[in-house]
Design brief:
- The chain has about 220 residues and is of the alpha/beta class.
- The chain is built from seven helices and six strands; from the N terminus they run βααβαβαααβαββ.
- It is globular.
Length: about 220
């Protein structure tokens, strides 16, 4: 099966360099809403059987146009949610960058725990477990999952066999698409941080001209 991992669109927090975390009421800006609409167009022709999202507004708002266009119910799962930053939530990144913990987060993230919040290893564990649950529930299907930058990057690092301390090497831009193939032997990463043409994900035509099913 295929998991189409989508990062939410631009918000006021991403524009201002603030850690939005689990703060309620962080919505897409107008550019973010435009990204969500373009995402729906980019995925045109790609078979999608189900759509899941983090319960936070910015992810639900990003996935909503796609769900509406496909006539699908948008399902939410808490384990797809953002990192719980604890007391860092809502603070400016440029100020946090002066702390000792920031150096740990960037140099040895496997040892990082946010004050009053989660460790990055805990985020990786819950995200990977949730993706594997979704894969089990939807064998041989294509499922879109809208989440946040760090949970997606941590999941990609896991399925790539990368040490968690290297996950910062993966970029996941707003409204980008990364694709995982699970449930057919070894996990495969088909796309990372794609913000352009996704027509390669459409079912291919067989030699006889009929539409072939997407494998995975």
């Amino acid at each position: 099966m295929l998991l189409v991992l989508i990062r939410h669109g631009v918000t006021a927090a991403t524009d201002s360099g603030v850690l939005g975390g689990w703060t309620p009421g962080v919505h897409l800006t107008e550019p973010g809403r435009q990204q969500a609409e373009r995402l729906t167009a980019r995925l045109d022709g790609v078979t999608i059987h189900s759509i899941y999202a983090s319960p936070l507004e910015r992810c639900r708002e990003t996935a909503a146009p796609l769900a509406a266009a496909r006539g699908l119910r948008l399902l939410t799962r808490a384990d797809l949610g953002e990192v719980r930053y604890g007391s860092w939530t809502g603070r400016k990144v440029k100020l946090l960058a002066r702390t000792n913990l920031w150096k740990v987060v960037h140099d040895v993230p496997s040892r990082a725990r946010f004050p009053g919040g989660e460790s990055l290893l805990e985020v990786q564990h819950r995200m990977v477990q949730e993706l594997e649950r979704i894969a089990t529930e939807h064998p041989k299907q294509v499922v879109a999952v809208c989440s946040h930058a760090d949970p997606i990057r941590l999941a990609l690092a896991h399925f790539a066999g990368m040490h968690t301390d290297l996950y910062h090497r993966i970029s996941v831009d707003t409204a980008s698409v990364s694709v995982l193939a699970l449930g057919d032997g070894m996990p495969r990463i088909l796309k990372v941080n794609d913000t352009g043409d996704l027509s390669v994900l459409a079912p291919r035509r067989s030699r006889g001209g009929a539409r072939a099913k997407v494998r995975g």
